[in-house]
Amino acid sequence: MTGYWRLVAISLRTAPAQVLGWALAVCALVTSSASAIGDKYAEQASRDAYAATYVGTQSSAALQGRGYNLETLGGILANELGYLTLIMLPLIGLHLAIRFTRSVEDTGRLDILTAGSVHRLAPAAAGLTAAALTAVLTFLLSAAALVTLDYPVAGSLRYAGSLAALMLAFTGIGALVAQCCRDARTSYVLAVACWMVSYLARAVVDARGVDLTWVNPESWLAEIRPFAAQPPLWPWLAVAATASVSFAAAAVVATRRDQGAGLVPPHPGPAAAPSWMTKPLHVLVRLTLGVCLGWTVGGSLFAFSFGYLTKQISVLSAISGATRSDNIDATVSLFVQMNALLAAAAAIQLTQWLAAEETSGRVGYALASPVSRRRWWGATAALVTAWSLVLLICMGVCTGLGLAAGFGDVGYLDDGVPATLAYTPAVLLLAVIALALQSVNPRVVTVTWLAVGWGIVVCLRADLLDLPEWARRLSPVHWVGAVPRDAWDRPAALVMTLLALALAAVAVLAFQRRDLRAG
Amino acid sequence: MHAIEAEALCKRFGRTQALDGLDLAVRQGEVHGFLGPNGAGKSTTIRALLGQITLDSGRARIFGLDCRRQSVQAHRRLTYVPGDVALWPGLSGGSCIDILGRLQGGLDPKRRDALVERFELDPTKRTRTYSKGNRQKVALVAALSVDADLYLFDEPTSGLDPLMEDVFQQCVRELKDAGRTVLLSSHILSEVEALCDRVSIVRRGAVVREGTLADLRSHTLTTVTAITGTAIARLADLDGIVDLTVEQQPDGVHTRFRVGRAALASAVGQVAAADPTALTVEPPSLDELFLTNYRTDTAVTEGTPA
Ligand SMILES: Nc1ncnc2c1ncn2[C@@H]1O[C@H](COP(=O)(O)OP(=O)(O)OP(=O)(O)O)[C@@H](O)[C@H]1O
Ligand SMILES: [Mg+2]
């Protein structure tokens, strides 16, 4: 393929942080968990006790996947990390695939590159090579870390390999999605939808103990059984098949479609704007309608599924002695915290979109009209906060619906909304942090994802990692307390709301004072 | 009160001094050309006028309104075509025109439709699928549909075909007849010559020349060629004559020189006295005029250039 190596070099040079950063993040997670588990389950007896709590039940598998070989350290590690790896790895894979292909194409850089002596498929192939390199690095770094921590060598290699394999399978899916959609934005929406379907399907399959693990890439991570005496071969073949089929399909689509376009040619639109679109807020609503509806549907589905699975999941802790309703409450608080983090993620993504409006020059263009910066900022903030509230309410309702459906008891219907809405101040605070960063510099909004990522770690894995209280406190969601198990922490909610308001005020001032980018 | 008054604008981006004491005055009702080589600071000036960037120093006012502090009031009276037209992907061109017009405070639908017709624009296409020229037309239609006092155009015709260029020039003439003010940044010299009352030439963030085209011409050299029977006497002694060449050819002595405005009359007098069989006096071409002013190695001096 002419030009392939040159383009690989360009991809790596333009985004080394992406390639290395994600691999390091996964490796850091694996290392910290592996060492924590190594300390906690140093005795065989404690491992057997751990394994015993899982016998005969797959209830928590909805969140962490199925656990195998739980009497070994490696098995416990894989099982405990399932909470995060099943979310992180696919999303990283999808993100990198889009980031290195479609996003580059969107900038128009490809038009210049392909005008040179470069094979038609070389840019996409080179971008995907860079993306796949992250999977390779993840494998190497994690394997090295595990072996250093005295985990069995073969098992460590297989486990690190399984992480890379899951990432790679989703890189393939992301590559296909990126080729089919008309731009990076739609690609991200579709890709996240694909992941969510896969994740929820696995959750249902695992929680219900259905024998359908072979259909879904998300299930294969556990099915590789890295620490088994005789691990099966088929999951590896399944990953290889998925990756090669999707890469091949992506290549076919790439040769069929026009550069800069999607699979479906755009159809003509209206000759005039609808008459309701007269104010900045209306325009922003129109621009973000698609992605917001996507989040609402996805979030609702997520909330419903976990509400529905609560019955099975809370059985697990019941075995270990607590009263039943306590367990249900503990499980529900986990899920409503996840609802809150999803809403915050939606707010951040929306803010990123609006930041991209500025870097593309469109905000500068629109603000040549008699619209003050403060009004524009107000419209942006209103849009972001309103959508995250709508999302929270929808997810709260769906959690309630799911609980009622799962327990077969309509009494649970109104459990979701109050618990979810208790986290509103935390969501607001995260949204305002994203907006404030955007107001200072539209390019740094990405940093807020760290807060959400950390929120997920604290929410799902704080106890395992033995995180100190101050580290947990870095996640605003943690400030509220575990509603409905604990009472709502009113002072914390008040402080967060005030903090959000203060930050918003500073952000408006910053936005009014700084230079607008481009345009 | 001028439409635009900018005094000693300075703006630094990192290591680039984008504006370095730029002065600009645009009178009401005139079409003002804003010229200069790439990276001279034209777009930066326009962005400063729009209040998009904070100036390090200097003061910019539009109709007496401060460009930064009173930007909203100022923007009520102006409309803008950016140098890099970025439209909302996924929307149709017609929607973009309406959105921009309504943010501006309402556009005249009749005028909009007439302009869409004149510029032969298909408003139903998605913005991603427009060609460069068509994207430019969307921005032009959006700006021209608005009834403003001041029109800020940053390379408005880049990418337009000659027919559309002509339509644009007609539109600007109509604006001028209606007493509107236009600031036109452009690299198309014929357009500037056809439309502009006065021009400002920017180089390295400062205006190096400013005035009517005739003024600018008077600072440059006129080329004179003549064929005479005998060599013209005392020509070389005259002040302000440059590039003098004299050649003996079968049909006579070919003399060619360039001369500044001050010495033009006496030089032509000398030539006439030698009884020429052919005489041409060419005013400096526009290209030449600009090239002299654009080149960074040319010393910028008032009066006769050396
Ligand atoms: N946001 C920015 N950051 C850094 N440098 C900038 C920025 N905007 C402009 N510049 C620099 O300022 C200088 C003036 O740029 P400007 O866009 O005003 O030029 P211009 O006269 O419009 O040129 P052209 O004819 O090419 O459009 C250039 O050197 C440019 O690189
Ligand atoms: Mg420019």
TrEMBL record, chain A:
Leader peptide range in chain numbering: none
Keywords: Membrane, Transmembrane, Transmembrane helix
Keyword Acetylation: no
Superkingdom classification of source: Bacteria
Transmembrane domains' residue ranges: 81-100, 121-147, 159-181, 233-254, 287-310, 376-405, 417-437, 444-464, 492-511
Protein name (record): ABC transporter permease
Species of the source: Streptomyces macrolidinus
From TrEMBL, chain B:
Keyword Magnesium belongs to the record: no
Keyword set, alphabetical order: Antibiotic resistance, ATP-binding, Nucleotide-binding, Transport
Family: Belongs to the ABC transporter superfamily.
PANTHER family (alphabetical): ABC TRANSPORTER ATP-BINDING PROTEIN, ABC TRANSPORTER ATP-BINDING PROTEIN NATA
ABC transporter domain sequence ranges: 4-229
UniProt source species: Streptomyces macrolidinus
UniProt subcellular location: Cell membrane
SUPFAM superfamilies cross-referenced by the UniProt entry: P-loop containing nucleoside triphosphate hydrolases
Listed name of the protein: ABC transporter ATP-binding protein
Membrane topology reported for the UniProt record: Peripheral membrane protein
Top-rank taxon, per record: Bacteria
Chief location category: membrane
CDD domains per the UniProt record, alphabetical: ABC_DR_subfamily_A (cd03230)
Molecular function terms, GO-annotated: ATP binding
Pfam families: ABC_tran
Listed InterPro entries: AAA+_ATPase, ABC_transporter-like_ATP-bd, ABC_transporter-like_CS, ABC_transporter_ATP-binding, P-loop_NTPase
